[in-house]
Amino acid sequence: MSETIEFDVLKTAEAWAADGRRVALATVVETWGSAPRPTGSHLVIDSDGNFEGSVSGGCVEGAVVAEAADIIEAGEPRMLEFGVADETAWRVGLSCGGRIRVYVERVN
């Protein structure tokens, strides 16, 4: 993912928060194997489930968006882990192998 795209995602988070939307930011903090996004990749999510960016090229975005709703409501950050050894691997699409850790935090 290019720096421009990452910058745009962070600008989106800032704009959504300025508009009064409740927002969470998901950041890839660790990958192993065939994870399609590098560490530092971002996904911004609002409380209505709208999102911009990517943390896995589509493999785990749905699960991250669902968790973000709880994180936005509770205000407690959470580390999410997905991988082929994890029981959620087949459900979220990492069946090709690999592992990804995503940190999700409310930003406003």
UniProtKB/TrEMBL annotation:
Any Pfam family hit: XdhC_CoxI
Domain of life: Bacteria
InterPro entries cross-referenced by the UniProt entry: MoCofactor_Util/Proc (IPR052698), XdhC_CoxI (IPR003777)
Residues annotated as domain XdhC- CoxI: 16-83
Name of the featured protein: XdhC family protein
